[in-house]
Design a protein that fits this description.
This protein is α/β, with parallel strands linked by helices. Helices cover 40% and strands 16% of the residues. The protein is built from 25 helices and 19 strands. The protein has a 9-stranded mixed β-sheet with strand order 6-12-14-13-15-16-17-18-19, with helices on both faces. A 6-stranded mixed β-sheet has the order 1-2-8-7-5-3. A two-stranded antiparallel sheet has the order 4-11. β1 (170-173) and β2 (176-183) form a beta hairpin. α3 (39-47) packs across α6, α5 packs antiparallel against α6 and α7 (104-120) runs antiparallel to α8. It is elongated and about 115 Å long. The relative contact order is 0.07.
């Protein structure tokens, strides 16, 4: 009786409440996320009378059984095949000899099975849009493509091959024939080859408010191709490219039927530029391409060391910057509008870290704009920097667009912060004879004007062609009293100009010596970017009232440290409101912030609004100003 009760009382099914934290693992856990086969794959294998754990240990018999199985639907067996193959590839990868082909063939198998599931399964990707298994297969394919690309790159480097490979070229790897299809990688000028390929999925990015990427098919990678030292130092090259290129790597497997795809040992490798292409036609379906737009920018900033160079450049230490450089944030596109960003005193392109990232992360703006950043020696006086920055920009436009007909050369937007805002405004004014009259009292035909002819480049200001929009952030157009503070004077004494910049100020001093000895003495002492910003200085007093040329719409973004007190008496701690305010601006936004207002979310949203409006795009973000914001 006891035995009978014991036999009948053994329940075969038990149910208990699970922990909510198990939800994700139960629904979406797989070999990539948990290191174990997903429940869907284990169920598919079990339905064939096979032990999932034994299949993981000895996959070959199970792979053969799954390939021949008829009681399973194609989706179930293809996803199980892909996961088993990926599990084997991951194990082979961990133990691979770096001098062999390694697990390339294993990853190709995994990618092929996932590709077959995605495009030759029982339903289309659109019909499976809400299924966890499709997300698993997409991720399996993307990871396998990433590892194939990385292993092929490393293999090619060991063999001394030049990357990127030529479209149409081919190579054989462990029984597979790999053919290179579209290679949309434009190397920077002066960069002979790709130096590295960095998977974006491996990067942990700190310092950016947001990381912008696009979900889709393909491996998100950063291709690194830096110009040689000689190319970077070439004096005739006014611009540089970061050399950090986003790319999407795809693997395609030829075949018109499922059986052809499963039997093929051939793959087509594509490396696509996500700025140029955001979808791909695969087996008659339009597929979004994965991309990471923040990773190249973050990697470039992390490896550039701008935070150290900014102070070195200000003080004129060894290897300090001695002339402006225009840095292109992406390969030049003649069809995109150009945004030029100019940083402030003792700063560098790092000043734009979040603004540039937010503009590139906004899909609508990314389709319409490209960003150039001006990197210049802020220890030099504004008149010298103005001449050299203008020349660098003109040469860059002329080099990239000799005919001057590309959209990129027209409807240009200037964005300047602090001293960069002063320079940006001076790039859109026409001084005529005003400076000669105000500073030198020298009419056009006067003998003094002829004797001072050498100063013409510095005191005859012409607008930069092609600009019709400008945004000034915390810009001391009329100078700042802080520049005359004792601490600023002490810093000024530490500043040393590089020889090329010293030569420019010496030429100005020599030209002034016979006519205006007091002005000559100032330039003989090498006026710097700091003391030219004084609100008592003759240069800014003379230039601050020059009108911006017709046809240029301009905007002011002004900071005030406190919301208390009259706006007209406010300051950001460095720039008084009265110096940053410009009459006739299309818009003025006042934000409670310190001097680095360009880093605030309110300023970034305002700039995005202006750029959208400039490009004729819908407003997009509906921004409700905080109580601390004031818009005019």
């Amino acid at each position: 009786m006891l035995l009978l009760l014991q036999l009948t009382g053994c329940a075969l099914v038990h149910v208990k409440q699970g922990d909510p934290r198990d939800y994700d693992e139960g629904r979406r856990g797989d070999v990539l996320s948990t290191g174990h086969l997903s429940y869907a794959s284990r169920n598919a294998i079990s339905r064939l009378g096979l032990d999932p754990d034994r299949c993981v240990a000895e996959p070959s018999p199970c792979v053969a059984a799954l390939r021949e199985a008829t009681i399973l639907g194609n989706d179930a067996r293809l996803s199980a095949l892909a996961e088993l193959a990926l599990d084997g590839a991951l194990k082979a990868d961990r133990s691979a000899d770096r001098d062999t082909a390694g697990p390339i063939a294993d990853y190709l198998d995994a990618a092929r099975y996932a590709y077959a599931y995605l495009f030759f399964g029982e339903r289309t990707p659109r019909e499976r849009a809400f299924e966890d298994r499709q997300t698993q297969m997409r991720d399996s394919y993307n990871y396998a493509a990433e590892r194939v690309a990385a292993l092929l790159f490393a293999r090619g480097q060991r063999a001394g091959h030049v990357h990127p490979p030529s479209p149409g070229s081919a190579e054989s790897v462990d029984g597979w024939r790999l053919r290179y299809g579209e290679i949309q990688l434009t190397l920077p000028r002066g960069a002979p080859k790709l130096e590295a390929m960095v998977p974006a999925s491996r990067l942990r990015i700190d310092g950016l408010e947001s990381v912008y990427r696009r979900d889709g098919l393909g491996a998100e990678v950063v291709m690194v191709a830096r110009p040689t030292q000689a190319a970077r130092r070439a004096p005739t090259q006014p611009f540089a490219e970061t050399g950090y290129l986003p790319a999407t790597v795809l693997l395609q497997f030829p075949g018109d039927t499922l059986s052809q795809v499963l039997d093929t040992r051939e793959a087509v490798v594509d490396a696509l530029d996500p700025y140029r292409q955001d979808t791909m036609q695969l087996d008659g379906q339009t597929v979004p391409l994965a991309a990471n737009f923040s990773a190249p920018y973050a990697l470039w900033l992390a490896e550039s060391g701008f935070n150290r160079k900014a102070i070195d450049n200000l003080l004129g230490r060894d290897n300090a910057l001695d002339h402006p450089r225009v840095i292109l944030m992406q390969p030049y596109d003649p069809h995109r509008l150009t945004v030029v960003m100019i940083h402030g005193l003792a700063s560098s392109p790092e000043a734009w870290v979040n603004l540039a990232n937010e503009v590139m992360g906004d899909e609508a703006l990314r389709r319409r704009y490209q960003i150039w950043e001006v990197y210049y020696p802020t220890n030099a006086p504004i008149p010298v920097n103005l001449v050299q920055i203008r020349a660098a920009l003109e040469q860059t436009f002329a080099t990239l667009d000799p005919a001057g007909t590309a959209p990129a050369s027209h409807h240009v937007t200037l964005i300047g912060h602090s001293m960069g805002g002063v320079i940006a405004r001076l790039l859109v004014v026409d001084s005529g004879d005003a400076l000669w009259q105000r500073i030198f009292h020298a009419p056009p035909d006067s003998p003094r004007r002829k004797r001072l002819a050498a100063l013409a480049p510095y005191f005859t200001i012409k607008p930069l062609p092609g600009v019709d929009e400008a945004i000034f952030l915390a810009a001391p157009h009329a100078g700042t009293p802080v520049a005359g503070h004792w601490l600023a004077r002490m810093v000024t004494r530490l500043i040393r100009l590089p020889k090329t910049l010293l030569d420019a100020t010496t030429r100005i001093a020599d030209a002034l010596a016979g006519e205006l000895p007091e002005q000559a003495a100032l330039f003989r002492a090498a006026p710097t970017g700091v003391n030219v910003l004084r609100d008592t200085g003759p240069y800014l007093r003379a230039t601050s009232t020059l009108p911006i040329v017709p046809g240029v719409r301009y905007h002011s973004i002004i900071a005030r440290r406190s919301a208390e007190g009259p706006l007209e008496a406010s300051s950001d701690g460095f720039v008084p409101y009265a110096s940053a305010h410009l009459a006739g601006a299309a818009s003025e936004k006042v934000i409670v912030s310190g001097h680095s207002v360009q880093e605030t979310p309110q300023a970034i949203l305002e700039i995005r609004r202006i750029l959208r409006e400039h490009a004729g795009l819908p407003a997009g973000d509906a921004v409700v100003p905080r109580a601390s914001d004031t818009s005019r």
